[in-house]
Amino acid sequence: MHIHVISSVNEARTEELQHKTVIVIDVLRATSTMLTALANGCRTIVPVETVNQAKSMQGKDELLGGERFCKKIPGFDLGNSPLEYTSELVTGKTVIMTTTNGTRAIQKAAKASHILIGCMLNAAACARKAANLTGDIVIVCAGTQDVFALEDGLCAGLLIDELLRLHAAGAIRGNLTGPNAPAYVDDFGLAMLQAYRNVQDRLLDALLTCANGKRLTKIGFHDDVVHCAQTHVLDLAPMVRHGRLEA
């Protein structure tokens, strides 16, 4: 099992993701919002890169969701707060979503063999799914404004922790089976694993004190950070198929 971690969407190269199992994470907040929406009954999410793409693709009874600079895009139905995506609003609906970093990271992974959407909410389920797919695993941290974001790094560490636990238990079928098979994690991934283990008992504090946590709290989204800091609460491992994200 080989695990490689990319620090931000700006560092991701489409050709390097080809034929890999890619996990895209954007803890604050795109992938956390997507997972929450699907858990609350959203039928499918269509991640796109630009506002114009989203508007041009909208069909009857489809919702537009997304943000620019942490704020809901004018004219859109929903922003990028997971708490907005209630069952009353999204059950049975298709949401076309564009965010500053998260949906762009998904687009970068278009040539991957498999694209999974991960966050802290579904880390255990996501790791299980990735472990049983073929190919090396690449974790793409979306980051913020093309630079590394600590919350994504901590989530990468959490995912690696879960993957190594599965590997040690011999539970991995798709990526070199068994505890005696080699497990390789790149240097950045190892650093994120240690960072996660250092704060695993106080993840909420870590998220509230990182740059994005402070920014979101300042503009009124403290509860979003609290929500996104939860671990293993959603047993979903959605994949992107034909440009659509489904549970």
From TrEMBL:
It catalyses: (2R)-O-phospho-3-sulfolactate + H2O = (2R)-3-sulfolactate + phosphate. This is Probable 2-phosphosulfolactate phosphatase. Pfam families: 2-ph_phosp. InterPro entries: ComB-like (IPR005238), ComB-like_sf (IPR036702). Keywords: Hydrolase, Magnesium. Belongs to the ComB family. GO terms for molecular function: 2-phosphosulfolactate phosphatase activity; magnesium ion binding; sulfopyruvate decarboxylase activity. HAMAP family: ComB. Transmembrane segments: none annotated. Its cofactor is Mg(2+). It comes from Paenibacillus validus. The keyword Magnesium applies. It comes from the Bacteria. The keyword Membrane does not apply. It is an enzyme of class 3 (hydrolase). Its EC number is 3.1.3.71.
